[in-house]
Write a structure and sequence with these properties.
single chain; 277 residues; alpha/beta; TIM Barrel; 8-stranded parallel β-sheet; globular
């Protein structure tokens, strides 16, 4: 099975995508629907996807669950809940009754407090995530990795995947701190990592060689069985598009065995998110 472990849909008229403006994101500031993604998946022989939240509202999570109900290739939804809300555990329990919900993603990269995930007020929600059998998608940047490492040490049984390789500064080349922190997490914890979102961290006109140092680190640190490829579509349209990133990822992993590539491009996501054949 081939899996795209990270993609989005949105409908602008819903009104809760505060980050998505024509000025900031002209290439993707329009509606994106299953019909737009289906031909790209077919061309890449991808059978299933994980649909990830793009707005910090429960309403958007419910919208995505509705989309997943009618899009046969969507295997699961990673949604959003206000983890600090007093009723967060009840909200998580209620949402998890829909078996299409496979995880939750607080948008850590957008929060002022880099240590937010360790706040005592967040702990009941994390307990609820684990109790519901959900996964935690960690949308972080390199500065968050030490805090994430502490969370993982405190909660070794919480299934966590790091989105977009923690968004290393590929364009600026400042990779040393990121590499040390990501290697430490890979060595000391059971966290997984998404091979996704890298092209939007590179130069506007990127090459495979721009990405290779990061991909090599992730391959060596996590190994294929803890790496999962994702398109980050339609955000990837800001940096060359779905097909270009897919081709680059395949080229950058061509030294891997066929079995290892099966893990990266499908089996890791299938096992982590519990995707049924």
């Amino acid at each position: 099975m081939r899996v795209d472990a990270h993609q989005h849909f949105w409908r602008l008229s819903r009104g809760d995508y505060g980050w998505l403006t024509p000025e900031a994101h002209p290439a993707i500031c329009r509606d994106f629907r299953p019909a737009d993604l289906a031909p790209l998946l077919e061309d890449a022989a991808i059978e299933r996807t994980i649909l990830v939240q793009a707005a910090p509202t429960v309403a958007e999570t419910q919208f995505l669950l509705e989309v997943a109900a009618v899009a046969p290739f969507v295997a699961g939804v990673v949604g959003w809940v206000d983890f600090e809300a007093a009723d967060a555990p009840d909200t998580i329990e209620a949402l998890a009754r829909d078996t299409r919900l496979v995880g939750l993603r607080p948008m850590l990269q957008d929060l002022d407090d880099d240590d937010w995930i360790l706040r005592p007020a967040v702990a009941p929600a994390l307990d609820a995530v684990a109790a519901a059998g959900l996964r935690l998608d960690a949308l972080v940047k390199p500065r968050h990795l030490p805090h994430l490492a502490r969370l993982l040490a405190q909660r070794p049984d919480l299934p966590v995947v790091i989105d977009h390789g923690a968004k290393p500064d590929i364009a600026g080349g400042a990779l040393a701190g990121w590499e040390a922190a990501i290697r430490a997490i890979a060595h000391d914890t059971a966290a997984r990592c998404k091979l996704s979102g890298l092209v939007t961290e590179a130069r506007p006109v990127w090459t495979e060689e721009d990405l290779r140092p990061v991909v090599d680190v992730l391959l060596e640190a996590f190994g294929p069985a803890r790496l999962m490829w994702g398109s980050d579509w339609p955000v990837v349209n800001e940096a060359g598009g779905f097909a270009a990133w897919r081709a680059a990822a395949e080229a950058l992993t061509e030294a891997c065995s066929p079995e290892d590539r099966d893990w990266i491009f499908g089996r890791t996501a299938q096992r982590f998110y519990g995707i049924e054949p």
